[in-house]
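Issue 218. Parser rejects a valid record. Input:
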Amino acid sequence: MASAASFLGPRKTIEECVASTELETHRLRRNLGTFDVVVMGVGAMIGAGIFVLTGQAAATKAGPAITLSYVLAGAVCALAALCYAELAAMVPAAGSAYTYTFATLGQLIAFVIGWDLVLEFTIGASAVAVGFAGYLNALLDQVFGVTLPDAITAPPGDGGTVNVFGIAIVLLVGYLLVRGIGMTAKATIAFVATTLVVLALVLVVGGTSVDSGNWSPYFPFGWSGVVGGAALVFFAYIGFDIVATTAEESKNPQRSMPIGILGSLAIVTIIYCAVSAVLTGMAPFKQLAGEAPIADAFKGLGKDWVAAIVYVGALAATLKTVMLLMLGQSRVAFAMCRDGLLPERFGRTHERFGTPHKITLITMVVVAALAGFVPLSTLAELVNIGTLFAFMLVSAGVLYLRSAEPGRHRPFRTPLVPAVPLLAIAGCIYLAVTLPTDTWLRFVVWMLLGFVVYFGYARGASRVGGAR
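Output the parser choked on:
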């Protein structure tokens, strides 16, 4: 009978992970400074979550206690982020959780988590692209009086034919990503600055319109509502995982990765808590279930001019979220191609731009098709379960390496090991069990398909461990 080690496949050493970044035809360019990394993390996390999910989670899950839901989700993410930071500083290679698990738990688990991240980033980017299209359509309709037909603004499942805006934004993002990480970083900085200015306006103007009576009862759904809200808004926190996928493109990953991951997480948690408190104070939580809850709240107060500005901020936030999710997807798939677990030819980098242009273009086509023709409003929970699964395996990887290689140099050390990784795993399980049964079923089906791909193709095609 095959041993567990042989079943799980070979494990890449950290030295092999780092060496793979120097392959001439599969090499990414190091153009990102620490500030760029922090901004990309903030940019990835402030998007559809703050402008859409905050209101929906408050209305259906937690009520005014949605603020505590963000604290709970942020705390679980912080525990996982400490584990990510240790591995990102040790293994400065593209692929994030995929690469880390390859260096700790073996090839099979690495493929599973890579397959999981493909689902997370692709579906997430498609869903946010649909959100962008919805905000743009609402802006044209309610601010400029231009009403477009459903045939070109909604997918077939929502009464239309094709979501033209959803496809267009994905094509634009694909172009930016192919042109290079430097251009992507500059665009992200501009979008993040716009979003933060709009959120500052929300806090200042909205803060003067808070009615404390809207915060009572504070726990209309009990503690279970807080936990359910945390499981839903967890979608808003997947950004620091995207930060980790850019380790290979960072000029000084040993310093930039821990600062970028932990710093961006701290910044956005504070922003989320402040905005959710103001939002639930501006309007009764039951009125926040719409697709644009922040704008709706200001309209209810007669402040249409603020609502119009919120639409602009939402467009900037969702656009750059699409961009960073597609960035994360292309980097994970790039790492898998480089290892031979996906077709190697798709992972070659562009001679001029130094980007994995083939896998980026494939990602663009898939995301555009989903955004244009499939209604994805219910898939945030599917993205969340994939993220929680990735966080659990990264935390387990830290535990393994501390035991297997205790003397290895660690530029950043996760504190209080094994307590922090164990708490991260427990927190992820705690949130995951609250997700609906159909979410679990979809996830299991996707994972089973992944096992078919692994044993049918990837295992034999792998370049790791002398397989080829």
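Fixed in the parser; the record now loads. Residues 1-5 have pLDDT under 50 and may be disordered.
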